[in-house]
Amino acid sequence: MKDTKQPLLEEYQLGDLTLKNRVVMASLTRGRATNAGLVPTPLMARYYAQRASAGLILSEGTWVSPKAIGFINVPGIYTEEQVAGWKLVTQAVHDKGGLIFSQLGHIGAASHPDFFDGELPAGPSAINPQTHSFTPVGFKETLTPRELSLAEIKQTIQDYKQAAKNAREAGFDGIEIHAQAGMLIPQFLSLATNQRTDAYGGSIENRARIVFEILDAIIEVWDSTRVAIKFTPVALSHVGIVVPDEETIPMFQYILKKLNDYQLAFLHIVGPAEDLTGTPVAVLQDNYFSHFRRHYSGRLMANMGFTQESGNAILKEGLADLVSFGAPFIANPDLVERFQHHLPLAESDRDTYYSGGEKGYTDYPASVK
Ligand SMILES: Cc1cc2nc3c(=O)[nH]c(=O)nc-3n(C[C@H](O)[C@H](O)[C@H](O)COP(=O)(O)O)c2cc1C
What we know:
TIM Barrel; eight-stranded parallel barrel; binds flavin mononucleotide; FMN binding; Alkene reductase; Aldolase_TIM; oxidoreductase activity, acting on the CH-CH group of donors, NAD or NADP as acceptor
């Protein structure tokens, strides 16, 4: 459908995939894999199918291995049962004419021994990320983790590759690598949490190495045009000490330059949620997405606090190719139809974000019948 007033509603060609519109549902952890095996459930299939009018759905962050875990009731994609559960989800979305990528994640040092029978989680270095982990008995402060051995880093990369293979078997249309703030990848990029002295620490090139090794492993099993990556270079809160540092800007210049050589589906960039004044990334404050446009020649997906108006505006300006919406999809399963008909948006209930069950999950009504 061509709506010249609303570029958000235009059809979009993402490589060989045709998106019905340019409204993407961003990944939303919802804590509904409420079973010991962390298997996606029929309720989750219903929830995703309700949101299938999005041009593309990005699944909730999904564990690539048991070692990647660090938040309750988040599904994995490393067992046969989990793959079978995800098949229900992808089938339900496809039946409604939607498309869905699997977001693959690893929380690294920001986990807690409660997830590992009392053993410490592991990260780039034995440095406490000073954040919180949502354990089965509530939020707990993180501890000083173990430093990953070189063999464990290689295994982690293989875990991403196997998870990507599993996602293919489960019927996903592509992969998004979860390199959002707080996760294992940004822990490697950060000067504060990565003080390794081997090939994965020290220089910008070394700290970013894992990004490209994960990407290279995944594109052995997926065409690169179906693989994306999501970064949050400017997260200031809820990420402990993994905040922008004086090398964040050169680090991202390096990463973007290298990513130009990959024919990725898209680069997904999260914008600032807070004022950047006085931080090492203050220069990004104005015209935030234009900085990424300048350094990255592929498709760019913009995220953070977009509305119908600002989403249409950034597409019109040509500063992004796709716009993703996170929180608005929680209470508005028919967000796209609401944009089409200029209907008001419903407010979501934060108390049910991770609460398990149908309440605040599949019971938000569509406003257009
Ligand atoms: C409840 C909730 C869960 C989230 N879970 C994830 C996640 O699993 N993976 C991820 O990359 N981002 C996650 N995010 C961040 C969103 O994808 C998005 O980047 C953020 O909400 C900003 O977009 P918005 O302003 O449109 O909500 C989550 C956000 C919320 C509100």
